[in-house]
Specification:
By secondary structure, the chain is of the alpha/beta class. Helices cover 15% and strands 31% of the residues. The strands form two sheets. Strands 1-4-3-2 form a four-stranded mixed beta sheet, with helices on one face. Strands 5-8-7-6 form a four-stranded mixed beta sheet, covered by helices on one side. The radius of gyration is 16 Å and the shape is globular.
């Protein structure tokens, strides 16, 4: 049986700000909240499709972030209909999250902690060619 994604986790510097991005702006519904031993918010889980969730976890320490071209997980990519690409891009930009780059299939923005977040409609290409392409990538 092939494996499927159960959940992804992202560690963030400001839990409220990241919840506003992932749940508020992107519309991912909150399915669970966790608190630490002192009762402070520690984690917010948001639903990603039918069978997976994104665990937004409060960072316990400050530290370096991964450079976009360094080894490690590159991005989380959400599925969007090709017909909603322009509307989605406008919504992100209006909220202060400009499109960092794009391909014929995918829009990319940066979340509040500098993580790359993608919105893809692969294998359906965009109706209009992208303004900024990601070098060396078709997706």
């Amino acid at each position: 049986m092939p494996l499927s994604v159960h959940h992804l986790a992202v560690v963030v510097s400001d839990l409220n700000r990241s919840e506003a991005f992932y749940s508020g702006l992107l519309g991912l519904p909150v399915i669970k909240r966790h608190v630490d031993t002192q009762g402070a918010p520690r984690s917010v889980w948001v639903q990603m499709g039918a069978n997976a969730f994104l665990a937004i976890e409060r960072a316990e320490a400050s530290g370096p972030t991964r450079a976009d071209n360094a080894p490690g997980h590159h991005c989380v990519a959400f599925s969007i209909p090709a017909s909603e690409r322009t509307t989605f891009a406008e919504r992100l930009q209006k909220a202060g999250f400009p499109i960092a780059r794009e391909t014929d299939y995918t829009l990319y923005t940066i979340d509040p902690d500098g993580n790359l977040v993608a919105f893809s409609h692969y294998p359906t290409a965009a109706e209009h060619p992208p303004k900024k392409a990601m070098p060396g990538s078709a997706r």
